[in-house]
TrEMBL record:
Domain SusD-like N-terminal: 61-208
Residues in the signal sequence: 1-21
One protein family per Pfam: SusD_RagB
Keywords: Cell outer membrane, Membrane, Signal
The family this protein is said to belong to: Belongs to the SusD family.
Domain of life of the native organism: Bacteria
Gene3D superfamilies: 1.25.40.390
PROSITE patterns membership: PROKAR_LIPOPROTEIN
Residues forming coiled coils: none
Main subcellular location of this protein, as a coarse class: membrane
Database matches in InterPro entries: SusD-like_N, SusD_RagB_dom, TPR-like_helical_dom_sf
Protein name: Glycan metabolism protein RagB
Intracellular or extracellular location(s): Cell outer membrane
Length: 587
């Protein structure tokens, strides 16, 4: 296993013992100079950036949208959704975590060339380049999360965050204003370019010196030297491919209605950045055939090794477990779970019929008395509906009020509040029965390729219309056609509904947004998507009450958001400390 990763835990424990890197050393605390002759300690500084990546764990902020509710009133997203989101009560805060990560990355960038990575100067210089590239890429990533969570308007001006590009010490000026959103984005792009100049596209071992980049080969590096620094042991660290994907994510945010301005990133830029990543993945043919069920492709998951990614995954966490934590949280109660996340009827209605038509369309053949038949196959992959199956024995789950089980609508504290349970993300071969409990391996995607294809579809449709390509090898229509075909939609009729709207930019926009809603549900996208689209935030969460086989829609939970909540707040604690900071309007 990668020695860099093996050292992760010990470095984190070591660094967490330091109250502040700038306080006088006491007892066993370490100062920055300690890294110069101790590369493992220096690696711990940049590892602190990796462990702070927000996508390292599931947040389930979908429970504060029209896609899901929580069955626990103590859940932080329940409080957000029901009117208690505030500058001093913000479960979605990225300010503290991301600013702390950037501080560590700035330290690394400032000190990296003083570290004795190797006695061999060529190897030492390669390590310098890689570590700097990683730091620039990670800093761009944390800027993206800061802008997504805290960018916003003050009066009529769109602001980003303070730009801090040097390590902060006791003599630093902390009371600095927020840069404009555009200045923040330009800094992100500069960090991306710096990272791309230093990082390989991917980390792979090479077999001969001709594969070594010229600048290292000219300096005398051999294949073993190169593999030591840029070989497969470094997989899952920041790479050129990952940095390009982060740029596409940020560009989509900046081009979106809530963040766009006359001089900001254009839809064309976002589409072209996404296309660059898609082309690296083989174009449309690179869309993973089994990408819909990436979370339950058990053979693929169990066989992961040497930092390899499954075809659907661009970047992921390390393999975790075995554990059964996610299933314990979300399995229905008859399967010994707590049923935490309950998908809404709103989301269920967003899944089209298998023939491709929306359930509201006259040609859909939707039957309200038999609502789960002939639907988009993804519905049963992602959501447990009444009569659906789950768990290692394919147990039938009955959510009807009169089903006679604790899985039924509002039967016990852990029962569903909407008539549905989450199925996506869960390994169905986990058994929680106390007499035969087991655990399984899992990983968390940081970036899925499907997200990048959807970024392209959205941006390309806005830039060039449904059928335009902007010089790329595919259109928004082509991408959506491929995604829906993979899902099993319209296989008998050529997806007639998609064909009927392929010349209509507005209708295609709605389909693309809906496909994004379905493909990425429960992965933490919907909360931010609604905001960047400036969509309705207050659509009540609905459920279904089934009794005597009659399906009655019911309102489960109001969504209480003010118009200003298109943007998240700057933390109140920061405003109290630094008067140069301005709060987003309305907070």
């Amino acid at each position: 296993m990668n020695k860099y990763k093996l050292f992760l835990v010990s470095c984190i424990l070591l660094l967490s013992s330091c109250v502040d890197l700038f306080e006088p050393a006491i007892q066993n605390n370490r100062d920055v100079e300690s890294m110069y002759g101790e590369p493992r300690f220096a690696q711990g500084i940049i590892i602190n950036g990796y462990v702070r990546i927000p996508t390292n764990s599931w947040s389930f902020n979908d429970m504060a949208t029209d896609d899901a509710v929580s069955n626990s009133e103590t859940n932080p997203y329940f409080t957000v959704a029901t009117g208690q989101w505030a500058a001093d009560n913000n479960p979605l805060d990225q300010w503290t975590n991301s600013r702390a990560a950037i501080q560590y990355l700035n330290i690394m960038l400032d000190e990296v060339e003083r570290v004795s990575w190797s006695e061999d100067e060529v190897v030492r210089n390669m390590f310098n380049d890689r570590i700097k590239g990683e730091a620039y890429g990670l800093r761009a990533l944390f800027m993206f999360h800061l802008l997504q969570a805290h960018g916003g308007r003050v009066g009529g001006e769109l602001l980003g965050v303070p730009l801090v590009l040097e390590p902060e010490g006791t003599a630093s000026l902390f009371n600095i204003p927020r840069a404009t959103f555009e200045q923040s984005m330009q800094q992100l792009y500069e960090d991306v370019e710096s990272a791309l100049d230093l990082l390989p596209m991917d980390y792979n071992n090479i077999g001969n010196t001709q594969q070594i980049p010229e600048k290292y080969r000219a300096a005398g590096a051999d294949a073993d030297d190169y593999n030591r620094v840029f070989g497969q042991d470094a997989r899952q660290l920041m790479s050129g491919r990952i940095v390009r994907a982060i740029r596409a994510q940020a560009a989509l945010l900046a081009a979106s209605p809530a963040f766009s301005s006359s001089n900001s990133t254009r839809w064309e830029d976002a589409a072209n950045y996404a296309a660059e990543v898609i082309d690296l993945n083989g174009g449309l043919s690179g869309l993973a055939p089994n990408g819909v069920t990436w979370f339950t492709n058990t053979g693929e998951i169990n066989a992961i090794g040497s930092g390899i990614n499954p075809p659907e995954i661009l970047w992921r966490t390390d393999l975790q477990g075995p554990n059964n934590d996610l299933e314990s949280q979300h399995y229905p109660p008859t399967l010994f779970g707590n049923g935490l996340l309950n998908p809404t009827q709103n989301l269920v209605n967003a899944f089209p019929m298998a023939n491709g038509y929306p359930v509201t369309h006259p040609a859909s053949n939707y039957d309200q008395a038999d609502p789960y038949s002939n639907r988009d196959p993804r519905l049963r992959h992602f959501i447990i509906v009444n009569g659906g199956t789950a768990g290692p024995n394919n147990t039938v789950v009955r959510t009807a009020l009169d089903a006679g089980t604790i899985d039924g609508f509002n039967q016990v504290e852990t029962s569903t509040r909407t008539g549905y349970y989450m199925r996506k993300l869960l390994r169905q071969d986990v058994n929680l029965d106390p007499v035969s409990t087991n655990s399984q391996l899992r990983y968390k995607p940081r970036i899925r390729y499907t997200e990048i294809y959807l970024i392209y579809a959205e941006a390309a449709n806005e830039a060039w219309g449904p059928l335009g390509t902007g010089g790329n090898g595919y259109s928004a229509y082509d991408v959506i056609k491929a995604i829906r075909t993979r899902a099993g939609i319209g296989t008998d009729n050529g997806d007639a509904y998609l064909e009927s709207i392929k010349g209509d930019q507005t209708a295609m926009r709605e389909m693309i947004r809906n496909e994004r809603r379905l493909e990425l549900c429960f992965e933490g996208f919907r909360f931010w998507d609604l905001r960047r689209w400036m969509s309705n935030l207050t659509e009540p969460a609905q459920g279904v009450r089934i009794q005597n086989s009659v399906h009655q829609y019911v309102q489960v939970e109001n969504r209480v958001f003010g118009d200003h909540m298109i943007y998240g707040p700057i933390p109140l604690s920061e405003l109290l400390k630094f008067n140069a900071l301005q709060q987003n309007s309305g907070w």
